[in-house]
Each structure stands twice: as structure tokens, then as C-alpha cells.
Specification:
The protein has one domain (4-273): Protein of unknown function UPF0759 (TIM Barrel), CATH 3.20.20.410. Helices cover 35% and strands 17% of the residues. It has eleven helices and eleven strands. It has helices at residues 31-38, 54-63, 76-79, 99-107, 131-142, 163-171, 187-194, 209-212, 227-241, 255-258, 261-273; strands at 4-9, 41-44, 69-73, 82-83, 86-87, 114-120, 151-154, 175-176, 178-180, 200-205, 248-253.
Length: 277
């Protein structure tokens, strides 16, 4: 294997994990310290809702191990045009208030622990956004990402994935995020569709949020068997990390994937052992 594989969950602040993952009696303030002793990285969802305090980011850096990595979502003002929780699609990838620059200034306090910035876009309906308009905006915006920062883009409009889209990402060494989600193809076909556009790969195990919430709204145990899908994702990781240009592989699981993010990560670790490199 030519690359390092960094596995973790989306977030760490879940009270339902106390007992199944965190020791009984663990305080919220202790969650990240314990989490970072068990996994190599974490995807931070909270930054979607706003720029974190610089003091919080410095604290994250100080209480985690030397090689720990943070992946942070770009604020929704940039990716969804969200202002006061309402979306204004004219603002998507335009950011007239300079949120992105202020965001990157703060998160650079993570120094070498800053892994990737995730541009997570929603599914845009036909009347909401034209695919070519989106790509025009994306190409212009990616030029604003500092060359010292890695970025990855997630779209859910699979019909927009074409040669131009992949050329834009490749131009800026930006990742094409692979997701386990109802809107997108299965792992292997999705990998072939997106190809490799950067020197790292990034996988998100999201699942069907609405489907799983019909079964549970607590996140302390697995409620869906995803073993066959995890074997496919392990194969994707194997195939991608065999490529000389891929230096790192990031993979993160949401609670909504199977019911309990940490167990999904453990199951993926086991699947990777059965997919020898």
C-alpha cells in the first residue's frame, strides 16, 4: 500500500456513545481526547453552521495526538448559500461576505493536523441550479483555496459528473468525494465514474438518513447490516491506494449509515484486513 488510510466518524459529540464507545461517566469536554486515542481522524460537521472560534480550534490541536487529522466542512454560506439557516442559491460559491477566507484563517490554526476541507453540496433540482452554471462557479471559487490546503468536493447530482467537472477538480488537486448515499451509484461504479482527481481520496459513509430514522433516533448501536457494502468500500480503498499518485485515503462514517458510527469504522477496519494491499 502506497498511502496512509485515515478512518474516523463524522463528529465526536454524541451522548449516545457514552457506554458503547466512551466509558461510562465521560464528560462532554473529554470526548475528543478519548476519541482521538481510538481513531486517526475526524470529520467536523459543526463548521457547516459557522466559523468556529479560534480558541476552540487551538484547543482541538493541543488535546489530540501528533498525527491526528481533522477534516472540516466548509460553511454552508459557501456551499448552500445559507444565511440565518435559509438558502439563497444566488450566493452558492459566490460568498460575497468573504466567509471562506475568514474560515480558512481560523482553521489554519490546526497546522499539520488540518487534513481536508470538504465542500459538501446538496442535491440541486433542475429549477434551482444549472450544471454548467455550477461548474463555472466551482472553477472560479476553487482558485480561492490556498495551495497549502487540501480540498474535496461532494456533489449529489450524478448527471453533472463529466470530463469538465473532473478537469476542474484535477486542475486544483481537489478530491472527488465518494459517498455511500441513495442518490449515487454503488462503490465500484462510482469510483469508475469519478476517477482520481487529486493526490488523496475521500470516502463518506452517509447512508439513508430518512430510512434509518424510521428504525432509530438514538445512536448507540448498529441497526442495519452493512457488511457487504463495507467490503465493497474496502475494495475501493484498496484499488485507489494502489495508485502511485494517491498518498492518503480518508474514510468517515456517519451514525446514519448503520446506527453507530464508531462500530461502522471498526467493521471497515476489519473489511480492510480482508482486502489485502
Amino acid at each position: 500500500m502506497n498511502s496512509k488510510t485515515i478512518l474516523g466518524t463524522s463528529g465526536w459529540s454524541y451522548k449516545d456513545w457514552v457506554g458503547p464507545f466512551y466509558p461510562e461517566g465521560t464528560k462532554n469536554s473529554e470526548f475528543l481526547t478519548i476519541y482521538s486515542q481510538k481513531f486517526d481522524g475526524v470529520e467536523v460537521d459543526s463548521t457547516f453552521y459557522g466559523i468556529p472560534r479560534a480558541s476552540s480550534v487551538v484547543n482541538w490541536y493541543e488535546i489530540t495526538p501528533e498525527n491526528f487529522k481533522f477534516v472540516l466542512k466548509v460553511p454552508g454560506e459557501v456551499t448552500h448559500g445559507k444565511v440565518d439557516r435559509r438558502s439563497n442559491l444566488d450566493r452558492v460559491l459566490r460568498d460575497p461576505d468573504g466567509v471562506f477566507e475568514r474560515f480558512t484563517e481560523v482553521v489554519e490554526n490546526l497546522k499539520e493536523k488540518l487534513g481536508v476541507l470538504l465542500f459538501q453540496f446538496p442535491y440541486f433540482r433542475v429549477k434551482e441550479m444549472d450544471g454548467n452554471d455550477f461548474k463555472d462557479r466551482l472553477e472560479a471559487f476553487l482558485s480561492r483555496v490556498p495551495t497549502t490546503i487540501r480540498a474535496s468536493v461532494e456533489i449529489r447530482n450524478k448527471g453533472w459528473i463529466d470530463d469538465r467537472y473532473k478537469r476542474i477538480l484535477s486542475q486544483f488537486n481537489v478530491g472527488a468525494t465518494l459517498i455511500d448515499h441513495p442518490y449515487m451509484p454503488p462503490p465500484i461504479p462510482q469510483m469508475k465514474l469519478l476517477g482520481v482527481t487529486s493526490d488523496f481520496t475521500y470516502i463518506r459513509l452517509l447512508g439513508d438518513r430518512y430510512g434509518i430514522e424510521k428504525k432509530t433516533k438514538t445512536w448507540g448501536q448498529v441497526v442495519e447490516d452493512k457488511s457487504s457494502q463495507l467490503k465493497e468500500w474496502a475494495e475501493v480503498i484498496r484499488l485507489l491506494t494502489e495508485r502511485e499518485e494517491v498518498k492518503e485515503a480518508y474514510a468517515f462514517s456517519n451514525n446514519h449509515y448503520a446506527g453507530h458510527g464508531p462500530q461502522t469504522v471498526r467493521d471497515l477496519e476489519e473489511a480492510l484486513k480482508d482486502a489485502p494491499f
